[in-house]
Amino acid sequence: MTESADIVVIGGGIIGSSVAYHLAKLLDISTRIVVCDRGPMAGATSASCMGHLMVTPDNAQEYALTKTSVDLWHGLHEDLGGFDYNPTGALYLAETDEDQEMMPVLHKQFTENGDKADILDKQQLRDLEPGLADDIPGALFYPGDGVVLPMLAAGAMLRGAQARNPNVVVRPFCAVKGFERHGDGISAVVTEQGTIHTKTVVNACGVWAPDIGDMLKQQRLPIYPRAGNLAITGHHVSPIRTQLLEISYLRFAHAASEVDPTKTDADAGGHAVNMQPQTNGGCLIGSTRQFRGHNKDLNRELLRRSLQRAQRYAPGVAHAPIVRTWVGLRPYCIDNHPLIGPWEPVPGFWIAAGHEGLGISMAPVTGLLIAQQIAGIAPSVNVTPYLPGRFLS
Amino acid sequence: MSGRIPGMAERELVEFTFEGEKVSAWEGDSIAMALWAVGQTDLRNSSSNGAPRGVLCNMGICYECLVIVDGETVRSCTTMVQPGINVQRGGKR
Amino acid sequence: MSGDRVLEADVGIVGAGPGGMAAATKLAAAGLRVVVLDEGQRAGGQIYRQLPKGATSQAAMPEPPSHDHGHDLIKEFEQHAENGLQVIHGATVWDAQPGLLWFEHDGESRLLRCGHMVLAPGAYDRAIPFPGWDLPGVTTAGALQVMTRGFGVVPGKRALVVGSGPLLLPTVTSLLGAGVEVVAALEASSRWRALRALPAVAFHAARRREAMWYLKQLSRARVKLQWGWTVFACEGDGRVQRAIIGKVDGNGRPRKGTERTIECDVVGAGFGLVPSIEIGLRLGVPSQFIASRGGHCLVVDAEQRTSVSTVFAVGEICGIGGAEVASAEGELAAVAILRELRGAEMQPAVAARARLERKAADAMLSAFAPLPGLHELARPDTIVCRCEDVTRLRAGQAAAMHGKTMRAIKVGCRAGMGPCQARICGPSLQAMATGDNECQMDLPVVQVPLKPVRSETILNAPE
Question: Alpha-carbon distance C454 to A320, whole Å?
Answer without folding.
Answer: 5
